Amino acid sequence: MSAVDKAFHGLRHMIATGRLGAGERIPPEAELGEELGVSRGSLREAVRMLAALGVVEPRHGSGTYVSQLRPEDIIGSLSLTLELLPLPGLLEVYEIRRVLEAHVAAKAAARRTPETVRTLFSLIEAMEATDDPAEASELDHRFHAEIARAAENPTLASLLAVFRARSRKYQVFTLPEGPELRRKSDADHRVLATAIADRDPGSAAGAAEAHVTQTERWLRAFMPPVEEGAQGREKGGEADGALS
Amino acid sequence: MSAVDKAFHGLRHMIATGRLGAGERIPPEAELGEELGVSRGSLREAVRMLAALGVVEPRHGSGTYVSQLRPEDIIGSLSLTLELLPLPGLLEVYEIRRVLEAHVAAKAAARRTPETVRTLFSLIEAMEATDDPAEASELDHRFHAEIARAAENPTLASLLAVFRARSRKYQVFTLPEGPELRRKSDADHRVLATAIADRDPGSAAGAAEAHVTQTERWLRAFMPPVEEGAQGREKGGEADGALS
DNA sequence: CGGCCAGGATTCATCTGATGACTTTCCCTT
DNA sequence: AAGGGAAAGTCATCAGATGAATCCTGGCCG
Predict the structure, then answer these.
(1) What is the average pLDDT value for chain B, to the nearest integer?
(2) Position A232 pLDDT exceeds 70
């Protein structure tokens, strides 16, 4: 086993067995490196791996701390790389989104509070009022995040947040057809929010699924089709510079 | 921005824009480090981060290569850390599994081939024949993976595979009640496989959801309850040495 | 007595240089 | 032409030194 692997698995094992608890500071590099039998450089590479995976967080001058190990910490690591997924994979993500958004919508409808309903409709009004595509995208994200929050499953909420972030990168609202798409999207949101306000899980699930399906259809229609046998590799046309 | 961040984002951008394609070898450390304006050490830390996330793969003596960027490459990175998730988070994962397993079961029922049905029943027979809990767990995994495969969504299949791997770490079949639980599990499998063989998506979804719910119930019943306000931190009892 | 501040100690961040291990390539020998 | 071995290329690892950010301690001042 390589030195970095030894440090990586050793450190992970210390966390898994509770020797290093959530939020705790791990020993200094020199000390831990000696204990694990690797140099500081190799240990640092292992720590960086765990940091990329959301397990630890180094703080300059202070120390390196184990994260809270909450679902969002672990799942959030996907957001760094999910945008590298080629288009065919993205369409598969949409199928997952469709199922899960329908589920959280139904659950939110069953568990909604008056505050949730108020928040949803105020976000809808803000969405309908703005002309800025970027702001509309941000409000759209918060609208769906609010529904996921109401479903009371943080793991599921963060998973959907990661998936949505991937979709947002394509910025369909900035297309020439953007305003038209946004009007349709706003209408979808009102149907969905109304179903939740009415405590109607079935309608909410249907509305959420239809909304995701609609978004997926736009993506298929307006995005460059993938050439056959091209190993799923994207060309350089990623609309990346505007927001990231 | 720190040197490692500069290298990490720079390298990721080179991949996102297609300057480095899937499967391609990236420039040598010395050359790439100079281009990105960081030392070899910092570049290596950034490369390790991307490796942990499934984006690149260093090969000793040969070079560092961009992965195929398939969904399983990206999602598979979760398997390294999902086992660190405390128990409360795991129960939230079960809710996601329940929804998604039901979906893939329904889809598999709609799209099944004779080969799929044959494979499922042969796995069931092997499961019923063995006495080894570890082998039973492995066959159980392959049974569900086959259903996910039949649903023709590799991203979803790998996501479910990661979730199942986390659950398997608890090894309920090795408990004193194991044999009894396995008989119930085997019966569930027959119901599910029969529904798929009958091309009955509704029954398949119901059977899959019931099966996951049953597993979750076992976990709640037999695993140590979490003490209130304990920040979800696990004690050292993880049954880790047997299989990993 | 309490708060503030300066300086030292601690810790991570980065760079440089050197050596070893592994893979690939290519040329020489048979 | 095939096989073997040397050489180049590349990642892996270690050691040492310096910089930067934070934390802590002790003394000073109000």
Answers:
(1) 88
(2) no
